[in-house]
Write a structure and sequence with these properties.
The complex is a heterodimer of chains A (394) and B (558). Chain A contains 16 helices and 4 strands. By secondary structure, chain A is an all-alpha fold. Chain B is elongated, with a radius of gyration of 33 Å. Classes of the chains: A mainly alpha (394), B mainly alpha (558). The interface between A and B is large, with 43 and 41 residues.
């Protein structure tokens, strides 16, 4: 059987798929080499100079793009809409943030061995044996442990929740609602001061990353490049996954889960694996987001943020792989611009954009060429009548 | 003959009463002036204590002014002795105010007979000491025992009782003899018993313990518990026995009171959840539309209540009918407003997405963003004030448990709208059509039901219910642009927990969640209680994935 015929064709895209590698290579070179060079090598007065601040902003967008790829892996490719992706993003961020907090050392406001918030929340009274540091914070002194936790914590939480949900065949909108409730509960928990993660203020005031000053341009550049590399790797992984048999089953689950189930596949296991993968991807994105933005707090994990990530994905075009990246970078660039100049109007814009895209552009921006072609072919008096492309199933 | 004489004497006495009162007042003012001018602290305190009997408002006003350091001394330039005075009215724009002489209550005049205007910062304050201030406070409290306002009376009595000062007993007992209001009588009896309990008379103490237990005075629980452990009590077997018995009675009483209170709060929270999620039970449960803007429809209703309130205030004034009756009009108005928004939403967006439930969820989230911002634009980001009609404020007290009227109203309202919805669904042709369309759209359509129209009506009805919920919730919570966000997660959980498409499910899920939350709250606190309930729901759905009342269908993609 020539299964490769089916497998190599990504969903929803025809011709453009052949051009995609070149587009991606071009963007990768631009993002990985040109932009850092414009920041580091071009002198400051030049018109081609990119400020370190701007580079940091781009770095943030790249982390969001990683998050959007995770959303897409779940929603676009498997049909699971989770409203809790930002929870995993924040969990990864918190895991690294804890390490960064401990690396502040005595440089904090209180010049204590423990992070500032632990001093003013009187943790030394609660945890006298460890000098105020809660026991689960202690291993985070080790950067390797923190990096393992960045992957492991979202994976474990995702696995536990996913196992419970998929085992009892909670799917579709019910899964979305349940993931929203999980995220909501987690947000409430993290807002509490006695949950030992800084409560309302979260983790902030970082000084060093792996021994380097976080405010140095070179550190910022390195973090940016790390984000770009991560995005490229995740992109490559997602892209590779669509070409495998696993990717085929993923898409089959998206289009008709029951048929896959009756064909003898344990769909719950596939879904659980995808869910955990998406959680890990989100966690990695969050871990690189935190040192670049300098703060992580519970408002970063709320359901509204998760829904925003879904918007990026929808705007760019779910189902395709570059779409979510374009969506995340595009919508956020627009947001930075709009919240600067039109802060009041931004929610209108975001809301209306979302309505229009879901109602009229189910395939997002990357679906526009195909849509134009389909309209054009309908208008053309064709020799044999062509069926109009049906909208993608949810 | 004798029968007539007594009334005549009484009439005579009554005729002279005003005269006597004036003389008494003059005496009281004299005493106060003497107290203020006295150099002897002990004499000051005893003079102030004597003022308990005074009825003169000026004396009382001067006493509280003295305590707060607003009573001043005037030293005339002609060498006559200094005298005290208080300020008369608020300061004018120059910071000057009139002055009243305490001795005769007349305005202070200068040599030419013109009223004097004084500046506060240039005056000599009449000194007080901590002891004196306490004596004044006591006098004022004792005065408050006779205050015409029941609330003030009770507060004063409770405060006096807690001091356990035997000196107050005569005043309290005098009041008990003439008091008619039962709630005040109870407070008085409790204060007297509690004061006696603090005394030395052993028989009186035992009797006091007994009467505290008869009065179900839970405020004295802490003191009695302390008393049980005290060595003096342990030594006195009879007292110890009385205290034990009283504690047993009171503990029991408190336990039942707590249970009753928890039950009431649980029912009231359940009613709030039910009211908020009933609309969603229609739009999501019956129609299958994931309306993320449901919370914003609630908000539309709440803001409608606010607008109606303001209209009534301009039409009917800010007292009486305006603030009291607006709510009656606001309920239907909020239904109409939210139903109209729902209609536009259904026609404009949702009807394109009936086959794509996940997308309808995302599009309605966009709608919720827009609606929030619209309201922020029109009414501002801060919360708006929606007043309660007088018949919804205050509370009803049953055995020391406060039942707030607005909470009772929400419970009643929940019953009413559930009943209404049930009747609509089972007794009207619209209800029949709704059920037909929801069960089998194609078949209903084939039988001539205009399914598009039914969709429209159903969604508008569900939205209207959400609006009414908003109007109702404006009475118990804040009204702001974020109002909807506070309810939407809870609403979805209730509908999913109850079983999608089942009204009895929604009712029982609200009850379950509301009561569980209130039972957990005293132990875990509000936030942890809520988290536990959410986690509980997620686990519960493992056991029954389709909710409490699963609708039985043979379709796999139910």
């Amino acid at each position: 059987m020539k299964s490769s015929d089916y497998i190599s064709a990504p969903p929803g895209t025809g011709n453009p798929a052949r051009r995609e590698p070149w587009v991606v290579a071009f963007i990768a070179v631009l993002g990985l080499v040109v932009l850092p060079l414009m920041n580091g090598a071009v002198p400051e007065g030049s018109a081609f100079h990119l400020s370190t601040f701007q580079l940091g902003v781009f770095g943030k967008y790249l982390c969001y793009a990683v998050l959007a790829l995770g959303v897409n892996l779940l929603w676009g490719q498997t049909g699971i809409l989770s409203l809790g992706q930002c929870l995993f993003f924040a969990l990864g961020g918190y895991a690294l943030g804890m390490h960064l907090m401990l690396m502040i050392g005595k440089l904090g406001q209180y010049h204590a061995d423990i992070p500032d918030f632990m001093v003013f929340l009187e943790f030394p009274k609660r945890y006298p044996s460890s000098g105020g540091l809660p026991p689960h914070w202690i291993p985070f002194r080790n950067p390797l442990f923190a990096m393992v936790a960045v992957v492991a914590v979202p994976a474990i939480v995702g696995a536990a929740f996913g196992w419970l949900a998929f085992r009892s065949r909670i799917k579709g909108v019910y899964f979305s609602i349940l993931s929203q409730a999980l995220t909501y509960a987690a947000t409430l928990l993290f807002f509490r001061n006695d949950f030992t993660f800084g409560g309302n203020n979260g983790l902030t005031d970082f000084k060093t990353v792996l021994g380097y000053d976080v405010n140095l341009p070179s550190t910022k550049r390195a973090l940016y490049i790390a984000s770009a590399v991560l995005l490229l790797l995740v992109y490559g992984f997602c892209r590779w996954l669509t070409t495998t048999k696993f990717g085929l089953i993923q898409r089959a689950i998206r289009d008709s889960e029951n048929r896959v189930l009756f064909s003898g596949y344990a769909t719950a296991h596939f879904k659980l694996f995808v869910f955990v993968m998406a959680a890990v991807i989100a966690g990695l994105g969050g871990a690189l987001y935190v040192p670049q933005v300098g703060i992580i707090n519970p408002s970063d994990m709320g359901t509204d943020k998760s829904l925003e990530a879904v918007v990026w994905c929808a705007v760019g075009g779910r189902g395709s792989i570059v779409g979510p990246i374009l969506g995340a970078i595009g919508v956020n660039a627009l947001k930075s611009y709009a919240t600067h100049s039109y802060a009041e109007q931004w929610p209108y814009f975001l809301g209306i954009l979302f309505i229009l895209v879901t109602v009229f552009l189910p395939d997002g921006l990357v679906g526009i060429p195909a849509r134009i072609r389909s309209i054009a072919s309908r208008l053309r008096p064709a020799a044999q009548p062509t069926e109009p492309t049906p909208p993608a199933a949810p | 003959m004798r029968a007539f004489r007594v009334p005549r004497l009484l009439v005579l006495a009554l005729l002279f009463l005003p005269l006597l009162a004036v003389r008494a007042d003059d005496a009281a003012r004299g005493k106060l002036v003497r107290a203020i001018l006295s150099e002897d602290a002990a004499e000051q305190v005893s003079l102030v204590r004597e003022l308990v009997a005074a009825d003169d408002p000026l004396v009382l006003q001067s006493l509280s002014a003295w305590r707060l350091g607003n009573l001043y001394l005037w030293s005339p330039t002609d060498g006559t002795p200094a005298f005290p005075f208080v300020l008369d009215g608020a300061a004018d724009t120059d910071g000057k105010s009139g002055a009243l002489r305490i001795s005769d209550g007349t305005a202070l005049k200068d040599a030419s007979g013109q009223p004097v205007r004084v500046v506060v910062s240039e005056l000599t304050v009449a000194d007080t000491s901590a002891k004196l201030r306490k004596a004044i406070k006591t006098v004022l409290d004792l005065r408050a025992v006779g205050d015409p306002d029941v609330r003030v009376r009770i507060d004063a009595i409770v405060k006096l009782g807690q001091e356990q000062e035997a000196g107050y007993l005569p005043d309290l007992e005098r009041r008990l003899a003439i008091e008619k209001e039962p709630t005040v009588r109870r407070s008085l009896a409790e204060a007297i018993a509690f004061t006696k309990l603090g005394g030395d008379d052993r028989a009186a103490r035992i009797a006091a313990v007994k009467s505290l237990s008869d009065l179900r005075a839970i405020n004295s629980l802490a003191y009695l518990r302390k008393l049980r452990g005290a060595p003096a009590t342990v030594a006195d077997a009879e007292l110890a026995k009385a205290v034990e018995a009283a504690l047993a009675v009171l503990d029991d009483y408190e336990r039942w009171g707590n249970l009753f209170g928890t039950a009431f709060r649980g029912f009231s929270l359940a009613a709030v959840l039910l009211v908020a999620s009933l609309g969603l039970a229609i739009t999501f449960g019956l129609m299958g539309i994931i309306n993320m803007a449901h919370g914003e429809l609630i908000m539309v209703g709440a803001y409608t209540a606010y607008v109606v309130q303001n209209l009534f205030r301009t039409w009917f004034g800010t007292t009486g009918a305006g603030p009291d009756l607006y709510f009656v009009a606001a309920l239907p108005a909020s239904f109409v407003a939210a139903a109209a928004v729902g209609l536009v939403l259904e026609r404009g967006i949702i009807r394109f997405l009936y086959r794509r439930p996940l997308e309808s969820m995302l599009a309605t989230w966009g709608v919720s963003l827009v609606l929030q911002q619209v309201f922020r634009h029109i009414f501002g980001a801060a919360n708006v004030q929606v007043g309660s009609p007088s018949w919804l404020s205050g509370s009803y007290v049953v055995s020391d448990v406060l039942l707030a009227y607005n909470r009772i109203f929400v419970i009643g309202f929940a019953f009413a709208i559930v009943g209404l919805t049930y009747l609509l669904m089972t007794r009207t042709s619209l209800g029949l059509q709704i059920r037909a369309v929801m069960q089998n759209r194609a078949m209903a359509s084939a039988l001539g039901v205009r399914t598009e129209r039914v969709n429209m009506m159903t969604f508008a009805f569900g939205s209207g219910l959400a609006g009414m919920a908003g109007c109702c919730l404006s009475q118990i919570g804040n009204v702001g642009p974020g109002l909807g966000q506070n309810y939407v997660v809870d609403c979805f959980m209730i509908v999913v927990l109850g079983g999608v498409g089942s009204l009895p499910g929604t009712v029982s899920a609200s009850l379950g969640v509301g009561v569980t939350d209130q039972i957990l709250q005293p132990w875990l606190g509000a936030v942890m209680g809520k988290i536990t309930v959410l986690a509980g729901i997620i686990l519960f759905l493992q056991w029954r994935p389709a909710g409490l009342f699963a609708s039985r269908g043979r379709g796999l993609e139910g």
